[in-house]
Every structure is written in structure tokens, then in C-alpha cells.
Write a structure and sequence with these properties.
Blueprint (H helix, E strand, L loop, with lengths): L1 H14 L6 H24 L4 H16 L14 H11 L2 H36 L1
Helix pairs in contact: 2-3, 3-5, 4-5
């Protein structure tokens, strides 16, 4: 009896998604999951020593949020990490290199912005004292 009620409730819940496009659901799940993962790591990273916490957060961001250069229906949604893994498994060196370079570019930009931000806050704090 209880299982039947749960099954009816579950079917009703899933019917809410029938009117929403698959791409919208996939994008929402990907962006939401990335934000949750980055927030969870931020709560851990702020307890790490100052440069290490920021560096690990930037690396996780680069791994999760860099778009892939792969081709296919869902390739625009997948992170470059998935394209990198796919390239390694299929032994396609151009795919591996292009996804790795895009991840490293995002990581380098994030580290540069973090460096500039730390210099800005250090300079700001030295002028207020």
C-alpha cells in the first residue's frame, strides 16, 4: 500500500519534467552540480593554508567548468575533463591536447586573477593601516 502511494507520487513528480526540454534540464543539472561542488570545496579550501586553498579551488573550477572542444550532440554541455578522458580512452591525441590546453588556459587565467586579487587586497590593507 505504501509502495503504491510512493509510486503514484513519483510518477506525478516525474510528470513535471515532461514539459521541459531535455537540454534545459541537462544544463540546469550541470550548472547546479558544478556550483554545489565548488561551494562544497570552498568550505573545505578556506580552512587550508592561504595560497593552497585558492589554488585547489581554481583547479577544481578549471576541471569542472571548462567547456569541451569535442563534437557531438551533448558535447557543448560536457566539461573539457570528459573530452580529455574520452580522448585518452580513444587514443585521439589532438582531442586530448585541445581539451588539456583549454583546461590549462582556464586554470592559468584563474591563477592570474587570484594573484592580482591577492596583490590588490594586500596593497589595500597596507594603505589603510
Amino acid at each position: 500500500m505504501v509502495l503504491e502511494q510512493i509510486a503514484v507520487w513519483w510518477q506525478g513528480f516525474l510528470s513535471l519534467f515532461d514539459g521541459i526540454a531535455e537540454d534545459t534540464i541537462a544544463t540546469t543539472v550541470y550548472v547546479g552540480g558544478t556550483m554545489i561542488a565548488l561551494w562544497a570545496w570552498y568550505t573545505i579550501a578556506r580552512r587550508l593554508p592561504s595560497p593552497l586553498g585558492g589554488i585547489t579551488w581554481v583547479m577544481l573550477f578549471a576541471l569542472l567548468a571548462t567547456p569541451t572542444v569535442s563534437e557531438g550532440d551533448n558535447a557543448g554541455l560536457a566539461p573539457a575533463l570528459i573530452g580529455l578522458i574520452f580522448g585518452v580512452l580513444t587514443k585521439e591525441q589532438p582531442l586530448v591536447l585541445s581539451n588539456l590546453m583549454s583546461i590549462l588556459l582556464v586554470a592559468a587565467l584563474g591563477l592570474f586573477v587570484g594573484y592580482c586579487w591577492s596583490k590588490y587586497t594586500a596593497n589595500k590593507n597596507s594603505h589603510t593601516i
